[in-house]
Amino acid sequence: MSELCLFQHVHEFTRFRNGQQPSCLDYVFTSEDNVVQDLQYESPLGKSDHVVLTWNSTVHAEELNSHLKKYNYWKDDYRAIAQHLGDVDWFDVFLGKSANEMWSYFKEVVTTLMDGYIPLKSAKFCKKKGHWLKSTTVNMINKRDAAWKKYIRFKSTANFDRYKSIRNTVNSMVRADGVAYR
């Protein structure tokens, strides 16, 4: 790490197993010291004995401006489009034209109809986290996280057993929600 001039950001224990000495087995290395902020040690996923590490990273990127139209095909009016396409006498329109001319005309007609009957997607898209999880599952996840924090703060077999019990309940609830979501 020193030879490569890397910075290590994990300074607390990341593996906890009841009855064993906690240890630091998970690392986050960067080439600059100020890239990682707000490193958090969260409760483990599933039955793992390793904490989940979360952090914010500072990255610099230019904003990309796309000049492409992005249609929201879920909010279209395909019946109106089909009606307009059905009203065109394609035989007369294409009579005496080359394949390229026919394609250009057809493409222009379809593009005009799309602009008229399919709205554009909004520039901002905010995806809701865990939208497929039921609210009872999300509440149980919060209880699991609180039980984990209590175990880390006051290490005892009782606190660890309570965390494990809630963790197992959360795992089965997430699986059930995932099956229902599919």
Distance N to C terminus: 44 Å
Number of structural units classed as domains: 3
Number of strands: 4
Order of helices and strands: EEEEHHHHH
Radius of gyration from CA coordinates: 28 Å
What fraction strand?
5-15%
- Work out the helicity level: 40-55%
Number of helices: 5
Shape: elongated
What's the average pLDDT? 85
Lateral strand order in the biggest sheet: 1-2
Largest sheet: 2 strands, antiparallel
Judged by helices, strands and strand pairing, the structural class is mainly alpha
Q: Unreliable segments (pLDDT under 50, ≥5 consecutive)?
A: none
Q: Could you describe the 3D structure shown?
A:
- The chain is mainly alpha-helical and 182 residues long.
- The chain has three domains: 1-58, no CATH class; 73-117; 125-182.
- The chain is built from five helices and four strands.
- It has helices at residues 78-87, 90-94, 99-117, 135-153, 157-181; strands at 7-8, 29-30, 36-42, 52-57.
- A two-stranded antiparallel sheet has the order 1-2. A two-stranded antiparallel sheet has the order 3-4.
- Helix 1 (78-87) runs antiparallel to helix 3 (99-117).
- The longest helix has 25 residues, at 157-181.
- The chain is elongated.
- The two termini are 44 Å apart.
